[in-house]
Amino acid sequence: MTDAAELRARTRALLEAHPPATTDRADFLAARFDAGLAWVHYPVGLGGLDAPRSLQAVVDAELAAAGAPDNDPRRIGIGLGMAAPTILAYGTEEQKRRFLRPLWLGEEVWCQLFSEPGAGSDLAALATRAVRDGDGGDWVVNGQKVWTSSAHVARWAILIARTDPDVPKHRGITYFLCDMTDPGVEVRPLRQITGEAEFNEVFLTDVRIPDAHRLGEVGEGWKVAQTTLNNERVAIGGARIPREGGMIATVARTWRDRPELRTHDLHQRLLDLWVDAEVARLTGERLRQQLAVGQPGPEGSGMKLAFARLNQQISGLEVELLAEEGLLYGDWTMRRPEHVDFTGRDAGYRYLRSKGNSIEGGTSEVLLNIVAERVLGLPAEPRNDKDVAWKDLAR
Prior knowledge:
single chain, 11 helices, 4-stranded mixed sheet, 4-stranded antiparallel sheet
């Protein structure tokens, strides 16, 4: 069993053999992956050492102290937080070896082709079709996906499509890995309330996906997708932040630096939100300890719920605190950023961008149902479409 001392020794050996100050960034990251120090809990040969997940913090601390480069996790967050754990759980050995290394190194950016114009909160109602071209041949995919972050810079996508319309909606879905450079893939920007086009809509027209890029069994895509979705909610709502970090940090700094803006009411609200943010941070630490001994479960939905609520309340308080200044908006320039930035730019940007937090990664309404049914054990809401073939559903 690999322990903390051994990981420190391995990390220091990596730093000695590849000094960050004199080693090319790409070469250092490749050496780190090959040394098993990328994801220590992953298998040997796939960036890990079969070590306890909790020991990743030991490696990260040693590397940070030495000034080692990271793999720009904000730019490749969908690959790291969603695609990689799903490929690890359901991929073939060939798929794992083909995709995990360039994913972690940031050589190949990933996006997520899940939501559709008619299948957002009810994702299992998706209509994108994948039809087999002969026995054992390629799959031909047609449909439209929406709200796709990073599609404009992505090389690969995790994709779910309907392969059997004659069974209930959850049972006729299959999971694929889609090459975003293939013919028939068209990416169009979706300009948001912030002025940016961080999201995209993606049109798929006769896109051919080899069966070798299917993840999991035919018809079991919903089961595979649950691994992705559980990891997505942890990635969005459960990121490790320092005390008084994240959105609350900016408001607290403004409060300390600008005493002329203070009122008794704003003081009370800031204290309430500071406590809520600290509770959420500590709850996230506990969730990561649970993750150290298993896969993420529905508890991640609670973290994502808290993340959305806090970001919206804190950003609203910041706008009020700044009074007239809070109504200003720095720049409406149309951009297509490479990563999501929840806390950057000015107060107006944070206020507007946080509105999407209760939609992306599962709407707050859907997540409330998940927490109620799967965490609290409350009775499920009545559903009259569970045993109806997808083709017979009203649309």
